[in-house]
Write a sequence for this structure.
């Protein structure tokens, strides 16, 4: 613990001392055709940037690198003959950084050791992480201050371009929440959603359930898969299902076994809840530390039902017409602390449940009457997509490619 603190302080001091020098040096070194991509963790291979990285790597006019320090990821990329940089090869990393023209991240920050990429000659782009009715910046955070929200807005201003995958979200979130000027806003879709346009791939993924089988050998082609994706809260919280009335996880686990069903769940790493269940065979936590290549968008191709609260996974999976159920035990508190662009409950593309009996009945109804359930919420699904992802059936990666080419010309 002490060594970690000392290391962080050393890095902070080095940044303060050398950042001005490297920023000036970067502005003097000619830029090449180099594009860097990464995400919130150098030990994660995923998000929109993963898909864009692989797409751009096929374009011979660019030299494209993924940013990582993970040996597992490096081994994978080497097998794919793809380029990477990181602290495992510091001299190579700094040389590539000095000649980088474009860096692309999926969040509100970007890889920038010693301020090398602060140069105005380097173009910074964020694909953004998710898009939906929730406000993506917390207005308040204990003890009720604006520091986090203001910091995130400041971070977004460091990018030359911020991506919003719809005209509506560009206006309502980009301009009104993030306070960005028009010249910083782009609308190029999400590369991770391009795969949903391949009908054969979608069909085969749902049929074969390969990812689910890798999580549990008990999964077979006839199994029903439920995915739960609760988002993080800007306050301390328990695993949200703990607040479901009448729910006993061991009883639910037994019910799943009787139905040949599995309940998978992921947790947003921004702020983990307390009491994450880990010891039940049919209720399976997709732990990112165990599965560094876990891809929620690819896994959503295999599931029968999405259980959600305020996560923007609701928008992505709406492209697949997958039935959704919502459980929101802290709705009023979340609305007060974080907020929504509009009345969230009016646009839900699925039923809201409050207790275990209603929860089970809703799942069983979908298992038996999927088409009827889809039809009932079809208007809400279409409205959600019209507002928050109007890129349906377009190739986002190709749009980013065209945009990036325009920067180099």
């Amino acid at each position: 613990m002490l060594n970690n603190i000392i290391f962080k302080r050393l890095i902070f001091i080095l940044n303060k001392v050398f950042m001005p020098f490297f920023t000036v040096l970067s502005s003097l070194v000619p830029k090449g055709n180099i594009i860097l991509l990464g995400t919130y963790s150098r030990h994660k291979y995923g998000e929109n940037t993963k898909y864009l990285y692989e797409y751009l790597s096929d374009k011979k006019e660019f030299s494209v690198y993924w940013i990582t320090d993970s040996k597992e990821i490096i081994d994978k990329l080497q097998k794919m003959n793809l380029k990477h940089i990181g602290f495992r090869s510091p001299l190579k990393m700094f040389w590539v950084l000095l000649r980088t023209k474009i860096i692309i991240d999926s969040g509100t920050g970007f890889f920038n050791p010693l301020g090398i990429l602060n140069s105005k000659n380097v173009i910074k782009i964020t694909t953004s992480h998710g898009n939906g009715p929730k406000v993506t910046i917390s207005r308040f955070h204990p003890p009720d201050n604006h520091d986090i929200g203001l910091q995130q807005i400041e971070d977004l201003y460091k990018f030359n371009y911020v991506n919003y995958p719809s005209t509506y979200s560009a206006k309502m979130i980009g301009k009104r929440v993030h306070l960005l000027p028009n010249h910083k806003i782009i609308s190029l879709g999400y590369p991770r959603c391009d795969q949903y346009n391949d009908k054969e791939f979608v069909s085969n993924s749902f049929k074969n359930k390969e990812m689910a089988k890798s999580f549990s050998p008990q999964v077979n082609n006839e199994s029903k898969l439920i995915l739960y994706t609760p988002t993080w809260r800007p306050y301390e919280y328990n695993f949200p299902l703990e607040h479901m009335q009448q729910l006993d996880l061991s009883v639910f686990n037994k019910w799943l076994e009787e139905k040949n069903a599995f309940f998978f769940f992921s947790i947003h790493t921004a702020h983990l809840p307390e009491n994450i269940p880990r010891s039940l065979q049919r209720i399976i936590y997709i732990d990112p530390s165990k599965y560094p290549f876990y891809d929620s968008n690819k896994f959503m191709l295999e599931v029968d039902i999405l259980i959600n609260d305020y996560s923007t996974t609701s928008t992505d999976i709406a492209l697949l017409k997958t039935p959704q159920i919502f459980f929101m035990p802290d709705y009023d508190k979340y609305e007060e602390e974080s907020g929504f662009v509009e009345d969230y409950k009016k646009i839900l593309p699925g039923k809201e449940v409050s207790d275990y009996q209603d929860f089970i009945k809703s799942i069983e109804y979908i298992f038996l009457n999927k088409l009827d359930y889809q039809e009932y919420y079809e208007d809400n699904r279409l409205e959600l997509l019209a507002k928050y992802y109007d890129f349906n059936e377009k190739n986002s990666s190709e749009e980013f490619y065209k945009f990036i080419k325009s920067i180099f010309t």
